[in-house]
Amino acid sequence: MTFLDENDAYLDCANDEINTTNANGKMISRILTSVSQNEIERTSERTKIGLARAIKEGHIPGHTPFGYKREGKLMIPDITTKNIIERMYQLYFEGNSYQTIANIFNAENVGNKRWRDNTILEMIEK
């Protein structure tokens, strides 16, 4: 509504009784906007509650990050990648940049995967 007012524009819907050139149309438009916003917020709340319940029950959503594996519903550290994770942190603490670590890992074909600086950053910061 503010945008329409600021730009001297109006909304006139052919199928609904929304016409922002008059008071009733503006009121209906505001009511529908409020109802829509409320539904968005309720959906968000329900999603967060459902996700929290799933996590409490051991269902970790999403992909399994490098360094972990799934056993049933649980995500546990993968001991086969422990040395890679430890080396990554060691290189980082020695002052190497994320890109440098990625370049070292790619040159050595560590973990048979392609490393990127963003991947290193995400793993170290989480």
3D architecture notes:
There is one protein chain. It contains five helices and two strands. The protein has 126 residues and is mainly α. The protein folds into two domains: 2-56; 68-125, no CATH class. α4 packs across α5. The mean pLDDT is 86.
Alpha-beta content class: mainly alpha
Order of helices and strands: HHEEHHH
End-to-end separation: 41 Å
Q: Which whole number gives the mean pLDDT? A: 86
Q: Could you give the count of β-strands?
A: 2
Give the helix tally.
5
Low-pLDDT residue intervals, each spanning 5 or more residues? none
- Report the C-alpha radius of gyration, rounded: 26 Å
Percent of residues in helices? 55-70%
Output the strand order for the largest sheet. Answer: 1-2
Main sheet attributes: strand count, strand direction, barrel closure: 2 strands, antiparallel
Oligomer: single chain
Give the number of domains: 2
In terms of DSSP E residues, the strand content is 5-15%
Tell me the overall shape.
Answer: elongated
